[in-house]
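Quick illustration for those who missed Monday's session on complexes.
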Amino acid sequence: MEERKGFGSNFGFLMAAVGSAVGLGNIWGFPNKMGANGGFTFLVIYLILAACCGIIVMVGELALGRKTGRGAVGAYRVLSKKFKWLGWLGILSAFLILFFYCALGGYCIKYVVLNVGDLFGAGFGSNGLNGAEVFGAFMGNQMEAVIYGLIFVLLTMIIVMGGIGGGIEKVCSVGMPALFVILLICIVRACTLPGAVDGLKYMFVPGWALENGVIKEAPDFLTVLSTAGGQMFFSLSLGMGAMITYGSYLHKKENIEKNALLIVIMDTLVALMAGLCVIPGRFALDPTGSLGGPSLLFVTMQNVFHKMPLGALFGILFYLLVVFAAISSSISLLEVIVAHFCDKARDAGKGDKRKTYSLIAAVFVGLGCILICLDSLGGAGISPFNILGIEKDVNGNLPMWCDCWLDFFDCISEGILMPLGALLMCLCIGWELGPKMVDDECCLEGQSFKMKGFFNICVKFITPLCMLLVLYGQIREFFF
Ligand code: PHE
Ligand code: NA
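Prediction with phenylalanine bound:
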């Protein structure tokens, strides 16, 4: 039987896993949610949740994967009677997230090209136009959005075709350190702008956003808790099998506990650093601009670069950074799907057929990506609310799940499937298999599992309870 090839080094594994975690969620989700939900207080709650849910689920997923040496579907099928099917939930989430991730990754490539145009005055840039005009023109040209989206799908597919050691590990080992350096450059630039200090206050000072009219109402505690929990889940790539899949390629001699801790710490660090890069720029140069979501990236930030000396150059660096972040996440998403089918083919003695399965999966992802691009973030009259005939309320608002296809796929995956997946994983490990299975896997080849006692209590009681709260909070926010 053909050998199942894994990561060549622990560094390579770590960069790939951090690459999966670090993504659009860090850049447009975390800083804004932190500012709008109590600044430093939010950070403390986030860190507590990361410790008693994030690290727990991370260790659990890595252990499930490594113990079985199988992707998400195979891991649950081998180990569990009650949750045999749970891996399929992960494959579904992976497709839904990929649909919008690739569309947005494509937009980022377009913005790199635009800023290159500006730098060289080549005429295909955005000089003279404000961010809203640039983005409006791009959104009005759906074919262009489709092409960029498909370029992103193609890049993702090519890397995954290269395999774990040959594709994913190589790209992330170079891309992640590069991302870090670019991020540092952008932070220095943003924080030295006059007026940048308001951005820091927005992010860190509790209550500042409310006192200064950036938000209208103080969020209640449950909202803060579930916003922090939901953000943490998505941000750490948990609850959908990505870490099971990467864990399955990790060498038995490596320490699961240490790696899990490092992934969580680095993802949180990059989220904070991304905040130091985008939020001060917004407060300094585009004081009424959007603080989160796609319009932060594609309208506010473009305004910031327009107004900045040498803005095109920083624009190129910044959007390149976002492309790196997005692609290292999208390859982990595609790998969740591809790994399963490769495992199956290999077990049947047919070789792993990685290239074929990567291609087939990419075709389906491409179709979803095309839908998102044609929809133009809800501007083209083909969104779920158009199709279902759902009316706007008196303020012109819609429930988030139906306002555009991007939000529809996001609400189902991030809102329901991921917290549900994590909840069921805890039940599976805590109550069906028993936490000892994780302990055994963490203690191979002379390693130790120092937080064993903490892990056992969390995985049985605390983490599932938090997951229920997050699930409730997100359903309330996204669907009503
Ligand atoms: N963690 C990524 C982000 O923050 C998103 C992601 C989710 C990637 C699930 C892979 C799996 O953007
Ligand atoms: Na993240």
